[in-house]
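Running co-folding for WTA.
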Amino acid sequence: MNNQNIESVLQEARKFEPSAEFIEKSNFKSLQEYQDLRERSLEEPEKFWADLAQSQLHWFKQWEKVLDWQPPIAKWFVGGKLNISYNCLDRHLHSWRKNKAAIIWEGEPGDSRVITYAQLHREVCQFANALKQLGASKGDRIAIYMPMIPEAAIAMLACARIGAAHTVIFGGFSREAIKDRLNDAQVKIVVTADGGYRKDKVVPLKPQVDLALSDNGAPSVEKVLVVQRSNSPTEMVEGRDYWWHELRKSVSSECQAQEMDSEDMLFILYTSGTTGTPKGVVHTTGGYNLYSHMTTKWVFDLQETDVYWCTADVGWITGHSYIVYGPLSNGATTVMYEGVTRASNPGCIWDVIEKYGVTIFYTAPTAIRAWLKMGEEHPNSRNLTSLRLLGTVGEPINPEAWIWYHRVIGGERCPIVDTWWQTETGGIMIAPIPSVIPTKPGSCTQPLPGIQAEIVDLDGNGLLANQGGYLTIKYPWPGMMRTVYGNPERFRKSYWEHIQPKDGQYFYFAGDGAREDEDGYFWVMGRVDDVINVAGHRLGTMEIESALVSHPAVAEAAVVGKADSLKGEDIFAFITLESSYSPSDKLAESLKQHVVEEIGAIARPGEIRFTDALPKTRSGKIMRRLLRGLASGGEIVGDTSTLEDRNVLDQLRESI
Ligand code: WTA
């Protein structure tokens, strides 16, 4: 985080109270009521979560033990049996919700679908039976590489229904990123679509899967199930590839939900860290179901009549917890939109809100900044009065964007919930309860019930108000990740050893720096590791560097984040070339394209800088701190005495 941002955060002192009208209709009507709940959650955490698990979810069999905590391994609701697809579907069929809209879907070209709970149940059962017919069974891993169409959610629920773990791969990833995930998770079946619509074009998906599978690239994959969406010409491999619309003709629409152990794996979701390839974050059934359910209810003040829209993609954790599982477990109506804001339709987001009367809207600061730039006339020419609550996630929100969101989109009447959490936490950790916690622009406010967050130094000591430190969690919560798939040692090292445990106290730490102000409000300052947050998407510098060095021209690559007013951060790559190549704009362009082909468009470097050498320490470590300073055009701060060759730095500075 740069100094300017820190200052703007420090100077932000405005406080916004929820309106009397909002409070009157909300789930929590008084601060006292909420504080009592939070106190109970801290005094008797196990009883607190057990009571909620009992009252909010359906269990085939009651658990024997609420929490088994052998740091850093937590097990929740040990011995309990349930199925999250049952909780998201079947139990709503016994009430009037049966014919309530579960998913309202809007396609980019303007087609749309409304799917009731009864219909969704039927679709999921059929999809589950099709997967079974292709050989899937409990414990298998199934990859889902899809556009934003209802079948993405249907496939997830179908996997959960038969007890296969899904691993959703964001549709913007390409062949190498897909291949790595398929191999790491030893995936048996891939669910994909011919293509999807994005910015008025068809983005082919099945061909990327074909590339990942070519040359025996992912030998564990036996079958590919293809949903027809874009009607693009699609090659099908005999005996491996099947069309969903053909298979469904022969499968039953009844499929009983498999009884799952509370700790059975529900899904793996890959996310970037500081070192190595992306980590397979593992979430299990019971704890995740409860945590995504409760946080949806608390943070979004969810009511029976809400039309709730989260604009994330199901390829990210936000889509998992707050498009699919959280809202459906609560029996809510969740909106799914295939498109994004684009030049040909700059008001499409506001059209969707007006068309369906969206009441709760959850999005990312990077999107808000883009809308702000496009001008108020687009939202102002639509009727947005149905909105009652707004949310943000993915990166710190700058006060200017917050105020714009509040004024222009929220009509100054909608509270804004700034929600801090991570793939690893399964659900929202720090966020306001909108009816009782006043908000301050740029702060995610206070930890949710049951969450013991603390800012500490490297030794685990608590810090004074407004002192920056490491954002840690000191007690297990049901939605926490259980392990890194196939690599428990990496789980321990990545999350539990950065701050040394002492006297039996363990600190979960996953990369963010923050401070807590005198009112107990948290202000997240950004990643303190080498993860770059580009437009709310988490990317590891290592992955991008590996993609770059796989190009024949590249000898060495060092990637850093550069502050960007729209995307938060942009990717800046420093490159040294093999001797037979020389720098040119054309080469820079083809390196960027190479990264797009290897990882995907989200990882395309904004800037490439060729250099004769990279600044290194005497022991050969690249000094990223210096490169970050150079990339941002600022002066190099801090110690440069460990630098092996000062000339390298001077040359780089000149070139920039
Ligand atoms: C960042 C997304 C500030 C943070 C749910 C975190 C945020 C990373 C916020 C996780 C927020 C997320 N304010 N920063 N409200 N929400 N972040 O795993 O750096 O894709 O560690 O999960 O996003 O990204 P991930």
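Result summary
The pocket of WTA is lined by residues 271, 316-318, 393-396, 418-423, 444, 510-512, 524, 527, 533, 538 (CB under 6 Å).
The chain is about 30% helix and 25% strand.
Job closed.
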